[in-house]
Amino acid sequence: MSNLPKTEEEWRLKLDPEQFRILRKKGTEMAGTGEYNKHLPSHGVYECAGCAAPLYRYDHKFDSGCGWPAFFDGFPGAISRHEDRSFGRVRTEITCTNCGGHLGHVFKGEGYGHPTDERHCVNSISIKFNESMPAEDKLNPKH
């Protein structure tokens, strides 16, 4: 993870065009089209597609019905939050702390009944699923 691209051109070489548009240019994939939208595994870790940093445990994912992968929490320190005032509204953008890649947005107070009362609405293209790595082997998160 220490050999991250430093320039826009290096990122363009590392990522495919759609990954670059979303991870580096803060794009959004079309609702319901992402690989991980309905993916509900019984083990594993979701990692950043840009740098492979662990972001989410398998058991923090839920089906929100919104058309994008939803998580109620990430690994401690893995996800950064930023105010996003684009499109004439105020939202909270979430990015990979390690590489700054755009993941999506976080929404609070929607009543899903999870411990954090949050929904991390994440672009599938921003993440990769690693089924061979138990969540406990990546980090030691507390539930």
UniProtKB/TrEMBL annotation:
Stored PROSITE patterns: MSRB
Reactions listed under catalytic activity: L-methionyl-[protein] + [thioredoxin]-disulfide + H2O = L-methionyl-(R)-S-oxide-[protein] + [thioredoxin]-dithiol
Domain of life of the source: Eukaryota
GO biological process, one term: response to oxidative stress
Cofactor comment text: Binds 1 zinc ion per subunit.
Pfam name, any one: SelR
Cofactor(s) listed in the protein's UniProt record: Zn(2+)
Alphabetical keyword list: Metal-binding, Oxidoreductase, Zinc
Domain MsrB: 8-132
Catalytic activity, EC: 1.8.4.12
GO molecular function annotation: metal ion binding; peptide-methionine (R)-S-oxide reductase activity
Family under the similarity heading: Belongs to the MsrB Met sulfoxide reductase family.
Name recorded for this polypeptide: Peptide-methionine (R)-S-oxide reductase
